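Backbone-to-sequence.
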């Protein structure tokens, strides 16, 4: 519950949120790159580095595992489909 019992402070987008009994994760394509458009996130539909119009997705979810999965799926889906897919699954998200 964090040092004061109010929750753990976590940077989320341009703000800090206090997490209590939930997880957060960020997934992105700007780090771990080895060339233009080549990065570590592989789209299972193509078996190639994901082609996405998002650079980074941050997600709040009931568990850290859920947050990690949701962030990666949203990143792969892209800006148009990600919000619809996250609705009802995530407590909040940030798409960059």
């Amino acid at each position: 519950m964090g040092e004061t019992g109010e929750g753990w402070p976590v940077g989320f987008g341009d703000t800090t949120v206090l997490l209590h009994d939930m997880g957060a994760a960020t997934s992105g394509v700007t780090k771990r790159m080895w060339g233009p458009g080549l990065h570590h996130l592989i789209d299972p539909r193509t078996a190639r580095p994901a082609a996405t119009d998002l650079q980074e997705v941050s997600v709040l979810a009931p568990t850290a595992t859920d947050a990690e999965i949701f962030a990666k799926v949203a990143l792969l889906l892209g800006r148009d489909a990600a919000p619809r897919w996250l609705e009802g699954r995530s407590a909040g998200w940030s798409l960059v």
